[in-house]
């Protein structure tokens, strides 16, 4: 009994070291979403007031592969990521949808007027309901949806050139072939 009293903390320590050792090379930006390989959630988002692009809904994501990017004008990483989204759209031609997360319409319009608009449609998610349904932790987040409306990829945080080249572009190419 006495040995068990001393061995138990040691066993717990060895177990924790094992968990940390197994996770040490894990990329923190790769958060496995419960929505991967499931249909996109049911939603309808109105257009951002004053923009010349429409809002969108779940049905708009069917028919061809699509990127869904959750962004906001107040999000500094979104500003850093934005030129990469424009390049991705120009290089791949993929349909791109934006979910404008908890943002004032005038701020969203100014953000896109300054940085450009890669989106085919942008939905205003002022109450964050759609973002919650998509499992968004924070902005920016990017999803790849196949032509059947099924989410096949999620990237948490701002896209980087490395993530686009190593993960997102190959996934898009698989869907477009």
Automatic annotation (TrEMBL):
Its subcellular locations are:
Cell envelope
One GO CC annotation: outer membrane-bounded periplasmic space
| Single GO MF annotation | disulfide oxidoreductase activity
Q: Where is the signal peptide?
A: none
Give the PROSITE patterns listed for this entry: THIOREDOXIN_2 (PS51352)
User: Principal localization?
Assistant: other
* UniProt key word Disulfide bond: yes
Ranges in coiled-coil conformation: none
What residue stretches are annotated with the Thioredoxin domain? 34-177
Pfam families attached to this UniProt entry: Redoxin (PF08534)
As for family, the record states: Belongs to the thioredoxin family. DsbE subfamily.
Q: Spell out the NCBIfam families in the cross-references.
A: dsbE
Q: What is this protein called?
A: Thioredoxin domain-containing protein
